[in-house]
Amino acid sequence: MYTREEMSDIRRFLHAQPELGFEEYKTQRFLLAKISEMPADHLKVETWRTGILVFVAGDAATQTIGYRTDMDGLPIKEETGLSFASQYDGKMHACGHDLHMTIALGILSYYAENQPKDNLLFVFQPAEEGPGGAEPMLEADLFQQWRPDWMFALHIAPNEPVGTVTTRQGLLFANTAEFMVHLGGRGGHAAYPHLANDMVVAASHFVTQIQSVVARRIDPLDSAVITIGKIESGTKENIIAERADTEGTIRTLSAEAMNLVQEHVRKIGAGIAESFDCTVEVEWGSQYKQVWNSDKVSSFMSFSEASHDVTFKQADMAMTGEDFGFFLEKIPGFMFWLGVDSPAYGLHDPGLNPDEGAIPVAVHHIINYLNDEMGG
Ligand SMILES: CC(=O)N[C@@H](CCC[C@H](N)C(=O)O)C(=O)O
């Protein structure tokens, strides 16, 4: 089994070479190389696109338990100043997937040396940040052949100290939908606005108006978020822009609220086209299912509460999204947060700097929990 230092080396190597969704080629090669160094007697290893599945055969199996990690980085320029910072300009592991992969490898290295009683399936899943690897992976014959009876995963929590795990039964993460809105009008000279059709102004109205959907269309006792993370428009201060392209994401606690927000984004887009006499195209990107923890989470919560190695806290619902929700829609299981103590720089922040002390904490806690679940 890996030492703390070996796991730190693995994490730093992965951190230095983040790759975007379905481009995790070097990541996959590195993980396969690490797995190939482990005793292989009871392991079966297969690749699926840029992901990997490792089936660990139990010696008296009555069930298969799945453990999933995501693999991709984000299009963010790293600003941590760390010695092992990203070597790829404009890409960063800013959501902790480098830690998630290291923890999965750490647990796997233990079970490669210590055959478990039950079967285990280690799921190295690409493209969590987008376009979404969970849904097609779940449908793949390879996954179905080893389909686990239940499965779980973790996500780093920058706002919690190392040694803390938090989760809850029921809804943990929100429903999400990415959208792109393209507005097209007529460009022209800045001095003659009446002869043009300014898409900077149209896009500004669109962005402002959709905020009223959350304030005025959603039941205040329900919840929704609309964030526009990107706007591209124009070329120069004295040229009226003929195009504006916006990208955003919707988060809701309920499927009903998601349908309602999507309907109003479409309607507001059509209204902008009408009032600004321009064209509008609303495009939908990946849409993730909520992360719903089944009652399988209760054994993890009571095990963690009783554990001397971690402090357990009840989690609140979060508006983050996770395509692990697709697995949990079909297979019972749960997700939990792992404290990594980076309160000043959260998820998707160029300064995110998780404490690596969380890696051995997670590896040992999960091994202890799995052994307990397998009756060991
Ligand atoms: C945990 C986390 O940060 N997850 C991402 C998931 C991406 C969802 C999707 N690409 C979207 O933006 O709708 C998150 O942004 O919550």
UniProtKB/TrEMBL annotation:
Cofactor note: The Mn(2+) ion enhances activity.
Keyword Ribosomal protein appears in the UniProt entry: no
Name of this chain's protein: N-acetyldiaminopimelate deacetylase
Residues binding Mn(2+): 95, 97, 129, 155, 348
EC number: 3.5.1.47
Occurrences of domain Peptidase M20 dimerisation (ranges): 177-267
SUPFAM superfamilies (UniProt xref): Bacterial exopeptidase dimerisation domain (SSF55031), Zn-dependent exopeptidases (SSF53187)
Molecular function GO labels: metal ion binding; N-acetyldiaminopimelate deacetylase activity
